[in-house]
Amino acid sequence: MKRKFVQRRAMLKIKADEAATLDGPALEAQVAEKLGGTFDELVFANAVLAWLADEAAHGADLALAERFSAWAAHTDEGRWSHRGGVLFKPPQRVDPLNLVPLQTDRSAGYSVHTLHHIRRREGFALTDPGMHLAGALGEANYCIWCHEQLKDSCSKGLKEKPAHDGSVAFRTRDARSKSASPNSTSSRPRAGRSARSR
């Protein structure tokens, strides 16, 4: 449902600029009416799967579901409204140089960085209660796709570049240690200190 309908159908058919023009709350109210009066992700997912089983009879229902899903997944308002769920959280590109979103103010002649959201840590406790079961299953399902594509570096480590014959080997600790220069400062004593004193 999340991958095949929300991401591959709704989000591809209705692009972000078009989704931004939709009336999300009104669409959600229409969807909720078809679900019995209140919106629930699991009930919505089961309803869409039932509609997909007979698209000819549920064309209007699926069109409504597509518009609502595109709004909920594409727009900031939609994602915030459904931030506690799992259906409308498409994979996002990660900028390794901007992992923590900051707001920067340079009006005073120097940079002042502030965070839009701060979670205080008390002692050694976590800063949030963790993920619920549906969220954990959603992440696990995404991991399965990586495993099928042989990209599960989180469990097996990073791969070396493919060899001439097309084979790919995973990086090992021995390979990393061999790549270190024998003349680097970390491999010889510092000035004024003996090897025994290190």
* Global shape: globular
Beta-strand fraction estimate: under 5%
Query: Number of DSSP helices?
Result: 9
Largest beta-sheet characterization = 2 strands, antiparallel
Content-based structural category:
mainly alpha
What oligomeric state do these chains adopt?
A: single chain
Q: What is the H-and-E element order?
A: HHHHHHEEHHH
Number of strands: 2
Distance between the termini: 59 Å
* Major beta sheet, strand line-up: 1-2
* Low-pLDDT windows of residues: 175-198
The averaged pLDDT comes out at 80
Helix content: 40-55%
Radius of gyration: 25 Å
Task: Please provide a written account of the structure.
The protein has helices spanning 2-13, 16-19, 24-34, 41-52, 59-74, 76-81, 133-148, 153-156, 173-179; strands at 102-105, 112-115. Helix 1 crosses helix 5 (59-74) and helix 3 packs across helix 5 (59-74). Residues 175-198 have low confidence and may be disordered. A two-stranded antiparallel ribbon has the order 1-2. The chain has 198 residues and is mainly alpha-helical. The protein has a domain at 2-81.
